[in-house]
Amino acid sequence: MSDPTTTQTVPALFANVAAADEAVAHFRGRLAFESDVSDVAAALATDAPGFVVVDTRSDESWTQGHVPGAMHLPGRRIAGEATAHIPAGTPVVVYCWGPGCNGATRAALEFARLGYPVKEMLGGFEYWVREGFAYDTPDGMRQRPADALTNVAAAGVGGAPLPTGSVGVISCAC
Question: For residue 72, is it within any domain?
Answer without folding.
Answer: yes
